[in-house]
Write a structure and sequence with these properties.
Blueprint: H1 2-50, H2 57-95, H3 105-120, H4 133-143, H5 160-175, E1 180-184, H6 189-196, E2 217-224, E3 227-228, H7 235-250, E4 253-255, E5 266-269, H8 273-279
Antiparallel strand pairs: 1-2, 2-3, 2-5, 4-5
Length: about 280
C-alpha cells in the first residue's frame, strides 16, 4: 500500500516538474522548426527559380528534423528513466526493510555503557570486622591510654563520605605493609572534656571543638603480629605513621602529625570546623 502511494506521488512529481516541462519545451521547439522549414521551402523555390544555389536544401531540412527528433527523445526519456530509477530504489528499500533490525542493538549499547560506567565507579568499601576488646585493653595499658577499651568504634556514627576516604587510606596502608586499626571514631563532648583533663594529655581541644564530635575525625594505629602498637617510639610504628600521613595528605585530609602538638594517628577532614558548621 505504501509503495502504491509513493508511486503515484512520484508519478505526479515527475509529470508536474519533468515530463510536462519537457512537453512544453518540445512544443516550443516545434514552433521554431516550422517557420524554419517554411523559410527553407520558400528559399528552395526561389533558388530553384534562380538556380544558382550550390547547396541542397533538402539535406539541411533533413538534418533539422533529425536533431529535433533526438532532442525530443532525450527530453522525454530522461525524466521517465529518472522516475523509474527512483521507484526502483524505493521499492527495493521497502522490500528489504524488514531485514534491517535496529532494536536489538540498543540493549547491547546500553549494557556496554553500563559496563564502562561500572568500571570507572569504585565499589563501596565496607568497614573491617570489629577487633576483640582484649586487643585494645593491652594496647591501652602499653600506651597509658585509659578509656581506650571503651572508646567508640562504630563506623555508622561517622560521616559516610569521610568513612569511604578513611577506608581507602586503610586499604592503601595494608598494601604498603602497615595494616591499621580504628582506635576511636565518634567522640562525645563529655569524653572530649574528660580526655583534656587527664594527666597524659592526648588532645588540646575541648568538647565541641574537635571534629570527632561531628564524625569527621578518626584515630588509627598500626597493627603488627595481631597487636596494636600506639607509641611512635617504636621504629616500625613511626614508619607506619609517616606512611599514614602521606596517604592522608594525598587523599585531601589533615594529618595530626604536622601539628605542634603531635597526634600521629589522627586524621580528619580538612578545613575549618566553624566553616563546616556554617555550611551545614
Amino acid at each position: 500500500m505504501i509503495l502504491i502511494v509513493i508511486f503515484f506521488v512520484l508519478a505526479w512529481v515527475g509529470w508536474r516538474f519533468f515530463v510536462r516541462g519537457s512537453v512544453n519545451t518540445i512544443v516550443q521547439a516545434e514552433n521554431k522548426v516550422k517557420p524554419a522549414s517554411c523559410s527553407g521551402a520558400t528559399k528552395k523555390k526561389r533558388k530553384d527559380v534562380v538556380s544558382i544555389s550550390p547547396d541542397k536544401p533538402e539535406h539541411k531540412e533533413s538534418f533539422i528534423k533529425r536533431s529535433f527528433f533526438h532532442k525530443k527523445l532525450k527530453l522525454t526519456l530522461l525524466p521517465l528513466a529518472s522516475l523509474i530509477l527512483v521507484l526502483a530504489v524505493v521499492g527495493i528499500t521497502l522490500h528489504f526493510n524488514s531485514r534491517h533490525v535496529i532494536a536489538p542493538f540498543l540493549p547491547q549499547e546500553y549494557s556496554q555503557v553500563a559496563h564502562i560506567q561500572g568500571t570507572f565507579t569504585e565499589a563501596k568499601l565496607e568497614p573491617p570486622p570489629a577487633l576483640p576488646p582484649e586487643v585494645f585493653i593491652s594496647a591501652a595499658a602499653a600506651a597509658a591510654r585509659p578509656g581506650l577499651a571503651t572508646a567508640n568504634r562504630d563506623w555508622s556514627q561517622l560521616d559516610p563520605q569521610f568513612v569511604q576516604t578513611v577506608l581507602q587510606i586503610m586499604k592503601k596502608m595494608t598494601e604498603r605493609g602497615y595494616p591499621m586499626a580504628l582506635l576511636e571514631g565518634y567522640r562525645s563532648p563529655e569524653r572530649q572534656d574528660d580526655l583534656i583533663s587527664q594527666a597524659n594529655v592526648v588532645t588540646k581541644a575541648k568538647g565541641g571543638q574537635s571534629k570527632h564530635q561531628y564524625g569527621l575525625a578518626v584515630d588509627l594505629a598500626p597493627m603488627k603480629d595481631g597487636k596494636i602498637i600506639i607509641s611512635e617510639r617504636d621504629p616500625w610504628a613511626f614508619a607506619a605513621y609517616q606512611a599514614l600521613g602521606e596517604e592522608a595528605v594525598a587523599a585531601g585530609l589533615t594529618w595530626g602529625g604536622v601539628w605542634s602538638f603531635k597526634d600521629y594517628g589522627h586524621i580528619e577532614k580538612a578545613g575549618s570546623l566553624a566553616a563546616m558548621l556554617r555550611n551545614k
